[in-house]
Hints:
Strand content: 5-15%
Structural class: alpha/beta
Order of helices and strands: HHEEHEHEHEHEHEH
Helix content: 40-55%
Shape: globular
Largest sheet: 7 strands, mixed
Radius of gyration: 20 Å
Number of helices: 8
Distance between the termini: 50 Å
Amino acid sequence: DARAAAQPARRRRGRRMKALTACWLLLRGGAHIAGGWWTIRTRFPHMTQAEREARVQQWAARFLHIWRIGLDVRGTPPKHGPVLMVVNHISWLDILVMHAAGYCRFVSKADVKDWPVIGPMATGAGTLYIARESRRDALRVVHQMAEALTRGEVVAAFPEGTTSDGLTLLPFHANLIQAAISACAPALPVALEFIDSCTGQMSTAPMYIGDQTLLESVWRTLTTPGLRAVVTYGTPQAPEGRERRQWAAELREGVGALRTGYGNIP
């Protein structure tokens, strides 16, 4: 009938509208990134550390708002250190989401430092860089993390070492956990998920794994309405003489327990 015949045309119009909306959001996001880069270049040198941290959090929250990504924060983000947050890793969005929930210094792969525009912004936000393939560099970064924790800072790391599909947790590498042991600082498990607001189910739209390109992940994210990021903070764990591999496994269990039930730890 006429109603059935009209459905393909409606679907095509819907896809065109999604594409136009995504292009508009890309332009707005690009402008916001340029503004952040300019702030770091011109204003950060004259700001206190507390002012910089507040500006980073505001910028990240505004970015999520521009791209229509909601944010639910469950539990209490640490406002002061020393604390090492261990977070599961799903997407390029993760650092933005975590900064919007509460400022922290992230450990990131070294090549981010050389990315145009994004690199200077990450550096301005206090990122610590690691060449993951280099054991010597890992030791250097662990030392820097321990120093930051000793100064009372909040440091965050992705102990999976790479992104996952978000449905399961990869094994946690223990190397970065050594920083908390060396600084006698607590570690805080934090679970990150992306949810479809309409269905309440996990969304894989921001997923960035395997052979996927960054553009593919960004496009899926921008053409998926109702996306929400959920950040759940657990309870800090003191080192208490634990060996780093044992502690990494216990922290992995802690992150898994905080998730809302989408997928199990293998």
